[in-house]
Design goal:
8 strands; disordered N terminus; mainly alpha; two-stranded antiparallel sheet
Length: 994
């Protein structure tokens, strides 16, 4: 495959664009396009280079860089009208895959030039197909042992508080720069408190720190904050970004028809992570537990099983297509999150081919993939075995009785339909009285002919349906249109009834034959139970039972007629998947409409079954908690290399082992069980893993990393700005038992952490991004910090630790870390403030600035209600001046200036008049609307679920409410003081950290 392009964009691709291409686009092209559009050049088109894509084939250029809407490739994979549908011999690409291609083209179609990894002179591939790694590639900085750098000499030794500072200052001095002044105490304690707990300090904490003149005053603040349970909530959430934590999984075959599959106990993993940070669990144990807690000894195993959510809560694609493909996608997710999260290497880029930039081969990828091939989804009960067994036994009784009821109702419904088919001609002749001339009323004819009204009404509508799916009613409808006779109606009715019965008996015979075919295909003598969980989908037959069998069926027209009469109403689509749960067919009766046809004994039987079910369900206790995790397969299986990443084209077996480039000699085999524990130990033995952990903590404190691509320490990643400092901190981390709290303390007690955010024009000209840390970087609060801080200063925030997640609504008072996180549809508030999507590991948070953010602060019910709660806290003060002063102390932890008090009092004086004018205008507008006359009835909202969730949750008041949404319950009335406090809560001083 060629990778270099002659027609390249004017600028070289950025590392982020390259990573996007290598992880999202190139594997997709390889898997779906290269079989036909490389050397074969079908349609005159090659897709293995940018030049080939732009040149195009017989139909013209495949892409127009920067314009996906005009690109033929996007039209083809989207199955646009008038364009050949691609890929031709495979299912249509998913919406996410099409979106990835479109986004890549919108970027300008960056296609990085490729330099092949050199093979050492005279070397030949090793046994098993391993490619020897050139020694020069092993010398890459991040693969080296952790050094013990000498602490540099500096010109201004008085500035440095720690050896860490000397590394920073030495670099600044080399650049002819100097750090700015130290931050004032109020700024410093606010920064530290928000950093470690995600909440602002109280006025009492600020004043106590300002009065403390002891040398260790700030150290005491840090120690107090590190011991706060809010520390684990804040820093645990940062790790959850890397772990791509979510509480559901978007899949198409959810048993309840919701379009996604929830993880009921996902919160147990989140709570474990929070506790691990609060307990200062050493980082090496932190890593081992998340990869292999099920391999711990019994005592450690029980307390750490929830850590397996790192793997068990990942995306599972098992029921979205062919098992070979979906399972390969799942393993790719695990390889990616483990390698980027713990090693800072993009091993997943080697899925289809050797890594284009780093010395990681495709065999390396499949050697790790084999670990997860042998790791199956598992649910570990957190209850005694007797409790679990009793619950499952009662659950089975309910399931069996529900099955009995369903089967009884299904048999009665089928028998009734077959019986009613024998009366078809009678109902059609009666329908002629309604449809022919002179037309009679349905009710009158039904009463005279002693017909069931509901069934008769169905027949009248059925006979008037356009012949969209079969032609058998065309003659009847032509007869009605031409004004036929009673005799013609009788003849056609008799003929149609005979046809219905003929089709009915044919379908019964075919069903019996198909049941024999299915029975012969069974591996045993018992049918499979329906599969719902990831570990239950092993073969394609589990995914789609019977889909691989050659079953018989009626001819299409007759099949459609049978469906329309005996199955479901064919209104829009003949395909059942296009109209799931649609209206019943002509002769199909269900539930209470069926029961009215049944005799008293049968109705009593149904009532007894339902009564038994209700009693059983009432006696069923709440389900025991369980951990979503993984476990080893009983018998390990071999992973085979997938040629070009295609799981349908397997190569030779690849033994489970660690990465070749990180092994001095032979790579470490991963053979104990699945190999997960071996993998964890191999990761922790590598210096790169320590550097990655240290760099993440540094970045979360300072805004930028020493390596500012925290999940990519490879060739495409950024080089460290302070390599010796990274080595120093990594050595410190190891020497202090991998204690994250000690590392926090060491970083925060440095002079560089305590710098102010003041500007310096000369330094800004040299280093506008502050990569050399000559000042503190000012940054906006995260989504969690914004919401939690507002709740905190209003006095509403609940301090409960852990437990099931809650929806984020204006009334919810728990910390945001306990809000539901969805892969299916991310909460709008979280999305608005740059919370990362949980589909892949997120290495960092970005901060955008969009108008809707400002609208949130202006209009959201949450902001207004919290402002009103804070207003109630200050209402008892003697006058507005005192109320403003107390509000400032609660919101900003400081006293207001005289000018600020004056502006506040002016606002509060003018606000009642402004509110009066607003009410007056609103009343006038309402009166004008009434004078226009009554409004037409609003159209009934569509039955399907709206795409958005407008008006719900934290965004209530910002965007239009969802149709039918209930108004907020008893909101506090809006007051002038509340509106003023909302302005304070929306200010930059409150929302930004200096």
């Amino acid at each position: 495959m060629t990778g270099a392009a002659q027609s390249t964009p004017a600028t070289a691709p950025t590392p982020q664009q390259i990573e996007f291409f290598e992880t999202k686009v190139r594997p997709l092209l390889v898997e779906s396009c290269f079989d036909c559009h490389t050397a074969d050049e079908k349609g005159g088109l090659r897709l293995d280079s940018l030049q080939g894509l732009i040149k195009g084939g017989d139909s013209g250029p495949a892409i127009v860089p920067g314009d996906p809407d005009s690109s033929l490739l996007i039209k083809a994979v989207s199955h646009a009208v008038g364009v050949s549908k691609m890929p031709r011999s495979a299912p249509k690409l998913s919406d996410g895959q099409i979106a990835a291609l479109a986004e890549w083209i919108r970027m300008g179609a960056p296609w990085p030039a490729v330099t092949k990894m050199p093979m050492p002179a005279g070397a030949t591939p090793a046994a098993g197909g391993e490619r020897p790694i050139d020694p020069s590639l092993r010398s890459f900085w991040s693969f080296q042992p952790i050094a013990k750098p000498e602490v540099p000499q500096i010109k201004d030794p008085g500035w440095a508080k720690t050896d860490l500072d000397r590394f920073i200052l030495a670099r600044l001095e080399r650049e002819g720069m100097a750090p700015v002044a130290t931050a004032d105490k109020r700024t410093l304690i606010r920064r530290a408190t928000l950093d470690l707990t995600g909440l602002p300090p109280t006025i009492d904490e600020v004043e106590a720190f300002e009065k403390d003149t002891s040398p260790d005053a700030f150290a005491k603040v840090i120690d107090r904050l590190l011991e706060s349970p809010q520390y684990g909530e804040t820093w645990g959430r940062l790790w959850l970004d890397v772990a791509r934590y979510a509480e559901d999984d978007p899949r198409s075959l959810d048993p309840m028809g919701r379009g996604f599959a929830p993880y009921p106990n996902a919160y147990l993993y989140r709570d474990w992570v929070i506790k691990a940070f609060n307990d200062d669990l050493p980082y090496d144990q932190f890593v081992k537990a998340q990869l292999a807690a099920d391999h711990f000894d019994e005592k450690a195993r029980v307390g750490n099983l929830a850590a397996l959510g790192f793997l068990g809560l990942g995306p599972w694609y098992y029921d979205n297509g062919a098992v070979e493909i979906t399972r390969a996608d799942e393993r790719n997710d695990r390889v990616d999150v483990v390698s980027r999260g713990f090693l800072g290497l993009t091993v997943a880029c080697a899925r289809c081919h050797d890594h284009k930039y780093d010395p990681i081969s495709a065999r390396d990828y499949y050697a790790l993939s084999g670990v997860f091939l042998n790791s199956s989804y598992a649910e570990y009960p957190l209850a005694p075995k007797t409790v679990v067994d009793e619950y499952k036994a009662l659950e089975k009784k309910i399931k069996d009785k529900q099955k009995l009821l369903n089967e009884f109702m299904e048999v009665e419904s089928r028998q009734l339909a077959e019986t009613l088919a024998l009366q078809g001609a009678k109902y059609m002749r009666a329908a002629w009285k309604v449809q022919g001339e002179p037309k009679e009323e349905v009710a009158r004819v039904a009463a005279r002919e002693k017909l069931d009204y509901e069934l008769f009404d169905r027949w009248v509508k059925f006979l008037a349906k356009p012949p969209k799916f079969y032609p058998f009613l065309t003659t009847w409808q032509e007869m009605v249109k031409s004004g036929g006779s009673d005799e013609e109606a009788k003849t056609l009715a008799d003929d149609f009834q005979a046809l219905m019965l003929e089709v009915m008996f044919e379908q019964r015979e075919i069903k019996e034959e198909n049941e024999i075919i299915r029975a012969k295909a069974l591996p045993g003598t018992k049918k499979k139970e329906p599969s719902n969980l990831p570990h239950e989908f092993v073969t394609n037959d589990d995914f789609c039972p019977g889909c691989g069998l050659e079953l018989k069926s009626l001819e299409p027209d007759r099949m459609h007629l049978w469906s329309d009469v005996f199955q479901r109403d064919l209104q829009e689509a003949a395909d059942a998947a296009a109209n799931p749960g649609g209206r019943p067919g002509l002769l199909v009766f269900r539930d209470w409409t069926l029961e009215r046809w049944l005799g008293g004994d049968r109705r009593r039987y149904i009532e007894d079954l339902r009564s038994d079910l209700a009693a059983l369900r009432k006696s069923l206790p709440e389900k025991y908690a369980y951990v979503h995790g993984v476990r080893d397969l009983e018998k390990p299986v071999a992973q085979k290399l997938h040629i070009r990443g295609n799981p349908m084209r397997e190569g030779d077996e690849v033994p489970r082992r660690f990465l070749q480039v990180l092994a001095a000699a032979d790579p470490r085999p991963l053979t104990r069980g699945s190999g997960r524990l071996d993998l964890a130990e191999a990761i922790l033995a590598e210096p790169i893993a320590t550097r990655v952990a240290v760099n993440r903590i540094w970045k979360w404190h300072f805004g930028t990393g020493i390596v500012n691509t925290p999940s990519n320490f490879g060739k495409l990643g950024e080089r460290p700005t302070h390599p010796e400092l990274l080595e120093y901190l990594s050595r410190y981390f190891i020497d202090n038992g991998h204690s994250m709290k000690k590392l926090h303390r060491h970083m925060m007690l440095s002079a560089v952490y305590q710098l102010s955010a003041a500007d310096h024009p000369a330094s800004m000209a040299k280093d506008s991004g502050n990569r050399l840390y000559w000042r503190a970087s000012r940054r906006r609060m995260t989504a969690e910090q914004i919401r939690d801080s507002v709740l905190f200063v209003s006095g509403t925030l609940e301090n409960k630790i852990g437990g099931p997640s809650i929806p984020l609504t204006p009334a919810a008072a728990r910390r945001t870390v306990y809000g539901k996180v969805s892969r299916y549809k991310l909460d709008q508030f979280l999305q608005l403030f740059d919370f990362p999507a949980a589909t892949i590991s997120a290495e960092q948070r970005f901060s955008t600035s969009v108008p809707l953010q400002r609208l949130f602060f202006m209009n959201s019910e949450f902001m207004q209600q919290q402002a009103e709660r804070l207003a109630q806290k200050v209402q008892d003060e003697p006058d507005n001046r005192a109320r403003v002063k107390k509000a400032y102390r609660l919101v900003f932890a400081r006293d207001p200036s005289d000018a600020e008090v004056t502006m506040a009092l002016e606002y509060l004086a003018a606000e009642p008049l402004r509110a009066y004018e607003e009410r007056k205008l609103a009343a006038a507008a309402e009166k004008k609307e009434k004078e226009k006359g009554p409004k037409k009835a609003a159209a009934k909202p569509p039955a399907e679920k709206p795409e958005g969730e407008a008006g719900e949750g934290m965004m209530a008041g910002v965007v239009p409410a969802k149709p039918g949404a209930e108004p907020p319950k008893k909101p506090l009335p809006v007051t002038p003081l509340g509106r003023y406090i909302k302005i304070l809560l929306s200010s930059s001083e409150f929302l930004f950290i200096d």
